Structures are given as C-alpha cells and as structure tokens.
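Possible regression after last week's pipeline update?

I re-ran a chain I had predicted before the update to compare outputs. Posting the input and the new output here so someone can diff against the archived version. Not blocking, just want to make sure nothing changed silently.
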Amino acid sequence: MNKLLTYLRVRWDAFLEVIRLTGRTLKLNLLRTSLSLLGVSIGIFSVVSILVGVDSLQNYLIHSLRKFGNNTLYIDRFDYKNMGNQPWAKIRRMRKPSYEEYRFLQRKLDSTLYDELNFRMVVPGMAVKYGKEKVRASLLGDAGNIFRIMSFDLDKGRFYNALEREKGLPVAVIGWDVADALFGGENPLGKYIQIGGKKIKVIGVFQKEGGMVTVNPANNKVFVPYLTMRKLVPGGQRRFYTTIMVKPASEATLEDLKGRIEVLLRNYRKLKPGEKSNFYINNIDFLKDMVKRSMRVLNLAGWILGGFSLLVGAFGIANIMFVSVKERTREIGIQKALGAKRGFILAEFLLEAVILALVGGILGLVLVLFIVKVFNAHAADFVLIYRQSQILKGLLISALTGVVAGFFPAWQASRLHPIDAIRK
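New output (post-update):
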C-alpha cells in the first residue's frame, strides 16, 4: 500500500511539473502559442457550434412535425414520398378520397386498431369578413376530431366539440393572423364572421406561430366542422383537396391498420385482384427520416470545416513542441542520465501537447457556450441546445489533436542519447 502511495505521489509530482513546464512554454513563446491555440479554439468552436446548431435545428423540426401526428396515416391520391416524380396529369386522374369512403371506414374498421379517424377538406384563399374588414385564409373542414391528430395550441377559447361537428353548427377556430386582421385588439370570441355569405361564430383562436422555421402554421387558417363547410362551399369535395387521416392506436398496430385499410378501400372501389390501387396510404413519419438525413449532411460539413482549423492548430502545437524539445535538450539529457525511461519522457511531452490542445479546446467551448447563452436570451421560440455529450466530444477532440500533434516531437525527445543531449 505504501509503495502504491509513493508511486502515485511521484506521478502526481511529475504531472504538476509538466503543468509548470507548459506554463513556462506559454510565457516564453506567447505569440506563437496564442496563434496555435487560436487554431485549436477555432476548430473546436467550428465543430461544436455546428453540432449544437444541427442538433437544435433537428430537434426543432421534429418537434414541429408533431403537428402532423405521430405515425398518422394519410390516405390520398398521390404518394407523399415521390411527390416530385409524379406527373400532375396522372395525379389529377386519380380518385380523391371522399367523405363517403370516410364513413365507410368508420363503419368497417376495427376500432381497436385506431384512435382517431378524420376526413379533411381544404379550400385555399377563401374570403373571410367581419364588418368592413376582409382577409383571405385557408378554410379547413374536418369530420372527425382533427385536434386529437394534429397538434395546435390555442391562444384563447376552445375547439369545437362532437355535437357541433355532428350537427354541422356554424362555429370556427381561427388563426392568429386572421383574428388580428379582422378584429385588431378586439376579443374575437363570440363574434360572427362571414364566410360564403353565411355567419360563423368564432369560438377559438390559435396561438401565434412563428420563428426561424415554421411547419404548416395555423396563423392564416380557419377550421370549421366538415358538415358546416359543405354549406359554405357546395360541391367542394369535387373541386378541392381532400384526405382521410387515421391515427393508429399504437405503433404496434400500424401495419395491421394499414393492411386493413388497403383491403377495405380496394373493396369499396371495386378493384380487381392484381389491379394496382388507385390511392396511397402515406405515413407522414418519413419526414422525420428526411430531416435526420439532411442533418447528417450538415454534421459532416461541420466536421470537414472544423477539421481544417484543427489541422492548422495541430501544426502549431507540433511546432511549439519541437521548439520545446530543442530548448530543453540538456534538461532531457540530465533526466535520462538520472534514470528517466523513454516512456516517461514520451509521456511528459505528450501530456504537455495535450494540455496545450485542451486549453485551446476549452477556449473554443467557452465561446460556444457564450454564444448559446446570448442567442437563447434573445430568441423567440427557437433555442440552441447545448448537450453534455457535445462538451465531452469537444474535449476529446482537443485531447486527440494534442496527442497527434505532440507524438513525433515527444518520440524524438524520448530517443535522445543522454550524453549527446547534455553536450548541447
């Protein structure tokens, strides 16, 4: 036990001596050292700041996509994954999902497979009036409870209930921009707006959405029950965009649900065996995979850009270490004459290089942390996420840079012959 304590004490004293020598190196070659550390700092700053930015953006986008519903199935006349590769003429010939098909699925689908079933129709650019004020907004009508599928936050009021949906009562939940344009500072709740010449009571206002990136915002939308919408836009199902939305009971039931919908709709549309389906069942979660793939590309770009700065910093540290070896040649010779092993000399100079690199890395991390704090203090809804793993990565990269940069000078120092070194 005493031998172990003595060994650890000797190693600790050696470590403190390396710290002292590193400090002396910093003072003697202040300009050169500062430039070298700057290279490492910029490299670590580049890598970690891009990791922070990409992780934060990915988190923000995936959080925004929750609006579409997790694992929600969208029955439509085109394939969402290949929208850019499908000719519009072909899409137009495809049969739109209908309200009658929604009602058919409502009767035939096993209720244990899904949590929510909804039919939605969208009419863009609809005129909405209140008194002398007028604004154009997207009108959305839904037959089920869309607010149990898509995630929207209310600023005031409430969503329409089951009775209002089933009876087609004249009620609406409006977007923040619509409310601002029509009512200004006036409270819109309980007021009547005009759509298609008919009066609709405002029962809710969506929370204002905005920021750097906003996915499908509700600011300029008006939501009404579908049966209400049929009175406002007669024959709208034939002219405007429609879709059927199905939220699975769980991820485990997703494939069973998808297969059952496929069979039911094919039967309803009287498609023959082997005949290609004239509808698509889309899982909106593919957007999350797209976001993650895009973020991986940005991450790679960050590593490449930061790598160049780290390379410059590594050359700077290597240069400092070569100078340090040259200036301390006699000292190395005396150490070896007194019994210091090659491994000890190698470790001593490697540790010095690692400490230099870590100093530069810590400066880069402090700069990133400062920028994150300042940005988040002034950000509206997009915030930068600074994870502990990112800090550890930055420190690890700094240490590895020091090892790579300092290995050859340290190896050269360890190979010096004691007599030749003392003579110099």
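Follow-up from reviewer: compared with the archived run. The beta strands are 73-76, 114-130, 133-142, 154-157, 171-174, 192-195, 198-206, 221-225, 241-248, 280-283. Marking as no regression found.
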